[in-house]
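Category: protein sequence paired with discrete backbone structure
Discipline: computational structural biology
Format: plain text, a pair of labelled lines
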Amino acid sequence: MNLLSSLNRREFFAAGAATGCGLASPQLANAGDTLNGTLIRGKAEHVISIWLGGGMGQIDTFDPKGKGDPSKKLAGSYYNSIETAVPDVRVCEHLPKLARLMARVTAVRSVHHEVIDEHAAATNRMHTGRPISGTITYPSLGSIIAHERGAASDGAPPYVLIGYPNVTRGPGFLGTRDSYLYLTDTSQGPAGLTRPDGITPRRQSRREKLLAVLKRNADPTTDQRLLDYDAAIEQSLKLSGPEFMRVFELDREPANLRNRYGGEFGQRCLLSRRLVERGVRFIEVSHNLNFLNGIGWDVHNEGILNQHKLIQELDTAVAALIADLEAKRMLDKTLIVITTEFGRPPEFDSGGGRGHQGTAFSCVLAGGGLSHCGALGETDEIAKKIVSNPVSVPDFFATICAAVGIDSDKNLYDGDRPVPITDMGQPIRELFA
């Protein structure tokens, strides 16, 4: 028996039996994002968003089905599945650590969009929640949350990207002020905040005094772009000091804890916890690291042979992050999100790997004070079609926004043009019960 009922939404309301996430079909909030007449507002203060670039296959991770066989062209999972801490919820055999923690996790198995063959377009969709437009550059989810909530501390930026910069992660029409601080090497911190060896504190002080003189003598401006740029410079000067930069000194953590997180990706997750402690509101951690299997999560052809190494690294790092946050009593205040640009079909390609599938795939939520149930939404016997309770990308975004206390019905403005925070998305009510 599957964890989730196969009742469709109409049957569910007719039955009138909304008894909980694990026993009822997922519901989307009604207009205005209300629950029992009250605006849905979660209690999370931070988001750690883990990005699996390339396309994580749901059928090989969080939505396992019957075993397939590439040599016989038999559609199905590449691996066996295992039981989890939540009855009737199974995951891939390479996720044993997360399996024990699934009571704190919800794998949303019915996410969907129509983008299939283009990684860049799908990546944009999963960062902005919208199709690419020829007339407007939409802000990323990280920038939206930075704009609405700001940093949780004066001594921290609101948004940090641990990975390579890209326009899809950017602020779009919101402007520079809501952009990210990024780094690619956890051992060094952000290159943009590191002073060259020849710039002594005294020399830096002289430079800042000169900059202040130039600003005082400049003509006043009302151009918001210039004002945002000035604000970004001011913030970078503040953050380049030793107080904030100490957050990147991972060797301050106990060696046994660092080892529990694992390799470079794990150290990125550990750093994200330190950034949350410091007051960063939104952190994206990239896991499209190619050195484990040569191609990351884009497992066409023989690339699938070492896919298990990526899954195992994800399991180790995210399980350590959940346990670490919980031990520090930070898990309810920190929403962990795992997303990817699309999923993978159950059929195998000519080389034994998998193609792309946007019509049904899994994204994962953990912590954040939500009412978790292991899994939510349902696909067919080969994870190819959504059987019940589809969750659109805007719905998923609205759920994240609601979790951190943002009204997803609110309008932002591109000049005089109103732009809803999500594209008509509605939060999933069960997660806020």
Remarks:
- The CA atoms of residues 145 and 282 lie 7 Å apart.
